Amino acid sequence: MKGRLLTGNAAAAAAARLARVDYVPAYPITPQTEIIETIADWVREGTMDSKFVQLESEHSMMTAAGAASLAGARVFTATSSQGLLYALEMLYNVSGWRAPMLLVNVSRGLAAPIVLEPDHNDVLAARDSGFLQLHSETCQEVADLVLLAYRVAEDKRVSLPAIVNLDGFYLSFTREPVVLPDQGKVDQFLPPYEPVSPLSASRPVARGSAVMEGFVYSYFRYNLHAAALRAKNVFNEAAGEYEQLFGREYGPVEGYMLDDAEYVLVMSNSFTALGRQAVKRMRERGVHAGLLKLRMVRPFPTEEVAALLRGRKVVGVFDQNLSPGLGGIFYSEVAGALYHVKNRPKAILPAVGALGGKQITAKEMDSVFEEMVRIDRDGVTPSPMFLMRDDELARVRKAVAIAEGRS
Amino acid sequence: MTVRVRFHGRGGQGAKTASRILGNAAFNDGYFTQDFPIYGAERRGAPVTAFTRFSREEITERGFIFSPDISAVMDDSLIADTLANPFSGLRRGGVAVVNTTKAKGSVVPGRDDVKSVCLDLTGQALKTLGKPVLSAGIAAAVARISGINKEALLTAVVDELKDIGLSAEMVQKNVGFAAAIYGELSPLELKTEELDAREELVPLAVVVSEGGIEAVTQAGNSAIRHTGNWRTFRPNIDYEKCTDCMMCYAYCPESAMAVGPDGRVKIDYDNCKGCMICMVECPLKAISQTLEGGA
Amino acid sequence: MATATRFRTLKDMPKEDYLSPGNTLCAGCGGILALRIFHKVLGPKVAWVNAAGCMTVSMSYPLSPLKSNWLYTAFASAPAGAQGVRDALDVLMAKGKLPASEDLKVVVVSGDGAAYDIGLQSTSGAIDRRLDFYYLCYDNEAYGNTGFQMSTSTPYGSSTKTTPATAAYPLGNTARKKDLFEVWRAMKAPYVATLANSHGLDFLRKVERGSEIKGPRLYIAFAACPTGWGFDTRNSVEIEKLAVQTGVWPLKESVNGAVRHTFVPRALIPVSDYLKTQERFNHLFEPSEKTEAIDAIQESVNVYWKEAGAREGFEVKLPGSSSR
Q1: Which one of A149, B3, C78, C90 has the minimum C-beta count within 10 Å?
Q2: How many whole angstroms separate alpha carbon B66 and alpha carbon B196?
Q3: Minimal CA–CA distance to C283: which of C147, C177, C166?
Q4: Within a domain: residue A403?
Q5: How distant is the Cα of B211 from the closest Cα of chain A, in angstroms?
Q6: Neighbours of chain C (3+ CB pairs under 8 A)
Q7: Which of C263, C139, C135, C137 is nearest to C190 (CA)?
Q8: What angle do CA A189, A90, A151 make, to 5 degrees?
């Protein structure tokens, strides 16, 4: 077996070191903390040449991160869940500054109630912030996407901050073999950061000025959007080079058993592994199942989604997130990408599950494919699925009874 | 028809209050009415815009008035101010109401299709109120021109000025001010026609073709703003009396004073806002004031 | 700290201006005057890191009144922005990526809303980390940018838009002004000072003194606000002078915790002479004089100077209460 056993958190930290980041402002939160602990350790032992500073909140952490990026430093930071939301105001500022720093988010469900295990409401709360978003399924992907993200973010055609997402627990604390790229080759892939109009003694600059008219604001917002859209081709370019250097291939999306697939489930992040197993089981039952993984979430890979889902019978979207009063977030985005496709699937099934890291059994996963088949066969309009099993319901009812003194 | 009025003033002159007095007056007179200001970053002395619409039929418009029937300009220095641009979109047959002592006849450059009404509101305000606060006067002028009933106007003056906390005495003085202006004018025919729009839409690809990262790399370039337009009073240094003590220079909040090679303080009138701190702080009383544009 | 000063008289104020004419702040603004004087002492190589306030909107694109660097962050976290800039410069210089000649002095500039209220957590972090920065708070004792609402810097008896004086609440704001000077001092900031534009020499010397110290330095500049306080712009500096002469705004500094009043009035002028100059205190005099409230304000000023005098060994002649 190649590489070595690393958790997702360790892989993120190792990639930050390989990227030769200058500055790491930090603040602890479960399940991300191990990343900053690891970096703090390396910096203090002298095996990582960066400045590490613990701030007093994620809001301050993100402010320091963006400001340092504007002053010319390559910046890395990490957070999770509540921390990301606490920093959210600054995410909009940092992208508006066009400061290409990197934030690793370790997904965890949002309070209330408090929960420690993952879903993607945290990272998707930042979907409109102007940060690029790359989501990872494996610990290897975490390391590779950190390096790719820097390359894309710092490209002058983009100049935007980026988030690399990994699931709490399922990746953050899971060890698996990871091949870390060779430092020399990383240096070749990722040249030193050259800031655009940095704060400077010899060439002073005003950044983040107010604009008092909507048309000026619109101009800069449209430009931010255009830069985010350009990031996809820049990513493809960089990923091509990355594959040459390191032998691992990454695209904005990734298909699994798509060639003749009639029923395709769209997923993201670590639970995609469960989807792959379900595809295999369905195939054994003679169902032409397939899977499409979203790796790039911002910019949204509209063309890739459309190209790979056109002509399928039914598409399902597995959302590990919930926008109350709407449903799953990716469902709307995938449906939007497919609306104008000529031979679009006849139905799109929304399925919400695994909130707060709720475990998903094979039966639950298969039920989504079975429902896709039924919709196709009976020609019915999909009604949204919300995954929950009877044994779980029994347990939660018992808990509620105890909490309310009815047991 | 809907009458659309755009007020242009400088912060502190009462443009917003004027739009409200007019709105309230029209409402009292039985019209459907809208009034609203736009807030910018601008401060006391900086250009301010406020709007009033009124109509006998329900108003279906909303937002910025691009094509006013009446442009009411409370400070004639705004005419040349490209940020304020007070006559932009003024309709054919529309009216420019301008507070000025300088201009006579047509005040709208290149537009012989609009009527001009010139008034010395500042002079009258200083006389009646003791302050260059023009809201009641300019609202009265517009109300009269557009045929709003006098009682409706005066009731509005009282309501609005009470509402912003003026003393009963000041309110009464403002009623007098408004009545005097109202009495000076007569209604004008408001048969107007919108100017031809010459705008074209730009595709996104063109909008985003130039980089678009917000950064002011010409740090310190604000002198081209010319905040000198904000002045009500102009400071004048009597160099005979001045001993170059530098007190005025030290306390100028604008950096609108510079020490020349001869060691003497020079005022940058392009940007001096006329706060007059220099006059008060000068220990030798070597700085005096004159009213800008005034007699 | 008995170092020689380059400021012997106000005439020694540096003649170089790093604030350009043409800002969009109100005429007569005490805040921008403080920034102008402050900048003169610091010199050109400065990065201003700003929290939301009046200064924020004075930097409106595409114009910049500052010949130095400017970064707007957010309302709550300008000190963290200063942290990022300082750290980036330090690490880039340490790595040899940036020459020392490109170093910048990092200065947070904010109003009292950010300094006393929403940004205090971020401020506390920066002080705890011994961040090498200046904090210039232009204190106009309310949220001026949003139209003059009460902040925790608003003094007792001031009317604001959110603490208006009414029949049921005749005094306006009845909370006491937060003592930010002591908050910083308690957190062991090495240098804390108050400033008034009216006392220019004291102002220049304090910025000079603070520049010789490394670490977090706070300057609270009393910032007369013609628009919010309600007075004629021309009296901006005079009202600051009155605040100092009545003892309402003590000029002092703390060097490594040791407090010294840098200007000790021989005899205090009654506070009512100061209060009467501003519309925000009108209700204390009209329709009838609120003697009790004015006396309470006078008494708190008197107690302050008695205690300060006892600690530092000076005596200030105090005015009696207004009823006497």
Answers
A1: C90
A2: 12
A3: C166
A4: no
A5: 7
A6: A, B
A7: C135
A8: 5
Contact C27 B273 (CB under 8 A): yes
The strand pairing partners of A79, in sequence order, are A105
Distance in angstroms (rounded) separating the CA atoms of residues B11 and A87: 36
How far apart are alpha carbons A93 and A76 in whole angstroms?
A: 17
Co-location of A238 and A372 in the same domain: no
Query: Does the predicted model carry a pTM greater than 0.90?
Result: yes
Radius of gyration of chain A (CA): 22
Q: Domains along chain B?
A: 2-184 (3.40.920.10), 224-291 (3.30.70.20)
Q: Where are the beta strands (DSSP E) in chain C?
A: 46-50, 69-72, 105-111, 133-139, 191-196, 216-222, 251-255, 258-263
Q: How does DSSP classify residue A29?
A: -
Q: What residue numbers bound the domain in which A292 lies?
A: 253-393
> Using one digit for the tens of pLDDT, what is the confidence trace for B218-250?
999 999 989 998 888 999 999 999 999 999 999
- Do A83 and A167 lie in one domain? The reply is yes
Q: What is the CA radius of gyration of chain C?
A: 20
User: How many whole angstroms separate alpha carbon C3 and alpha carbon A136?
Assistant: 59
Considering the domain architecture, whether residues A197 and A51 belong to the same structural domain is answered as: yes
Residues recorded for chain B? 295
DSSP 8-state assignment for residue B6: E
Listed residues A246, A269, A284: the one ending a domain:
A246
Q: How far apart are CA A272 and CA A137, in angstroms?
A: 7
B partners (3+ CB pairs within 8 A) are A, C
Beta strands at A132-135 and A296-298: parallel, antiparallel or unpaired: antiparallel
Q: What is the pLDDT along chain C (324 residues), one digit of tens a residue?
A: 456 899 999 999 999 999 999 999 999 999 999 999 999 999 999 999 999 999 998 888 999 999 999 999 999 999 999 999 999 999 999 999 999 999 999 999 999 999 999 999 999 999 999 999 999 999 999 999 999 999 999 999 999 999 999 999 999 999 999 999 999 999 999 999 999 999 999 999 999 999 999 999 999 999 999 999 999 999 999 999 999 999 999 999 999 999 999 999 999 999 999 999 999 999 999 989 999 999 999 999 999 999 999 999 999 999 964 444
Q: Which of residues 332-391 of A touch B (CB under 8 A)?
A: none
**Which residue of chain C comes nearest to B42, CA vs CA?**
C24
Is the Cβ of C22 closer than 8 Å to some Cβ of chain A?
no
Q: How far apart are CA A163 and CA A103, in angstroms?
A: 5
Residues A131 and A198 in one domain: yes
Answer yes or no: is A210 within a domain: yes
From residue A288, alpha-carbon distances to A147, A252, A263, C110, C281 in Å are 36, 24, 6, 63, 79
Cβ-Cβ contacts under 8 Å, A224 against chain B: 212
Neighbour tally for A270: CB within 10 Å: 28
Q: Is residue A315 part of a domain?
A: yes
Relative orientation angle of helices C78-94 and A58-70, to the nearest 10 degrees: 50
C-alpha to C-alpha distance for B237 and B249, rounded to whole angstroms = 12
The complex's ipTM? Answer: 0.96
Architecture of domain C10-265: 3-Layer(aba) Sandwich (3.40)
Sort A37 into a burial class: Cβ within 10 Å, 0-12 / 13-18 / 19+.
Answer: middle
Residues A144 and A9 in one domain: yes
Among candidates C10, C65, C66 on the partner chain, residue whose Cβ is nearest the Cβ of B250: C10
Compute the distance between CA of residue C133 and CA of residue C129 in angstroms, rounded to an integer: 11
Q: Domain holding A163: CATH number?
A: 3.40.50.970
Give dist(CA C137, CA A213) in Å, integer.
28
Do strands C216-222 and C191-196 pair parallel, antiparallel, or not at all (unpaired)? parallel
